[in-house]
Write a structure and sequence with these properties.
Helix content: 55-70%
Number of domains: 2
Number of helices: 3
Distance between the termini: 48 Å
Largest sheet: none
Radius of gyration: 25 Å
Order of helices and strands: HHH
Shape: flat
């Protein structure tokens, strides 16, 4: 059975497809482009569709506070789950015994 490279009409060189031709990298590149487009759209259209609420605390006035707070909360939940797992996990052979 011939491989994909052997079936190609140009057998002068045996090379792998470039990184841009691989499906996974194209998917990642599409995600990066979508994220950048979303960020630009949020920066451009946010003033038209949102109303600013007064900050209750001074730290809320910092640019990107909501994103930073969300990321820190996510990391805290992941680490707390890791610690909780130490208390509630069962041995690997729990069902075997």
């Amino acid at each position: 059975m011939k491989t994909e490279n052997e079936n190609s009409p140009d057998d002068s060189h045996d090379s792998k497809p470039s990184w841009i031709e691989r499906n996974v990298n194209m998917f990642i590149m599409g995600l990066v482009i979508a994220c950048i487009a979303t960020l630009v759209a949020q920066l451009v259209f946010r003033p038209m569709f949102s109303t600013e609420h007064p900050a209750h605390f001074e730290i809320e006035a910092i640019f990107g506070f909501e994103a930073i707070f969300g990321f820190v909360a996510f990391v805290a939940v992941v680490f707390l789950g890791w610690v909780l797992r130490m208390f509630v996990k069962r041995k690997e052979d729990y069902y075997d015994s």
